[in-house]
Design a protein that fits this description.
Distance between the termini: 56 Å
Oligomer: single chain
Number of helices: 6
Shape: elongated
Largest sheet: 2 strands, antiparallel
Strand order of the largest sheet: 1-2
Radius of gyration: 23 Å
Length: about 140
């Protein structure tokens, strides 16, 4: 199949497929006599894995590792599970940080009158010696 057909089947742009191919993230496609890249069902599977892993928060290096594991018949599910657990832990940390940001901004927005005056608790909070975003103050 052509790269445009592969893009349609996977929902991954042609540009992204070329990038993954050039960086060696997906397996090398064969070449037709005319020099065009020829993709196979294996490429669909690889791109689906990458796309879904990216949606789950994995970066490209981690996706490459997951692809190598998926292509390894000797892999151990324990190794895959450990990678997923590490990613889940990272996501939980990010969620906690986002929740703290939300609370701080909610508090500052409630304190701000939002009128024509120059006084602004939001700016004051960001500029103060003890900013509400400093982890030591929380």
């Amino acid at each position: 199949m052509t790269i445009s057909e592969l893009a349609k089947k996977t929902g991954v742009s042609v540009k992204t497929i070329r990038f993954y191919s050039d960086k060696g993230i997906i397996s090398e496609p064969s070449r037709a006599e005319n020099g065009y890249r020829q993709y196979r069902d294996k490429h669909i599977e690889e791109l689906q894995l990458i796309r879904r892993a990216r949606l789950a928060g994995f970066d490209l290096a981690e996706c490459r590792e997951l692809l190598m594991l998926s292509n390894n018949p000797q892999r151990r599910s324990a190794e895959v599970k450990e990678k997923a657990k590490i990613k889940l832990k990272e996501i939980n940390v990010k969620l906690k940080e986002l929740q703290e940001m939300k609370e701080i901004l909610s508090e500052l927005t409630e304190q701000c009158r939002g009128d024509e005056e120059a006084e602004c608790p939001i700016i004051d909070g960001f500029c103060s010696h003890q900013s509400p975003f400093d982890t030591e103050s929380h």
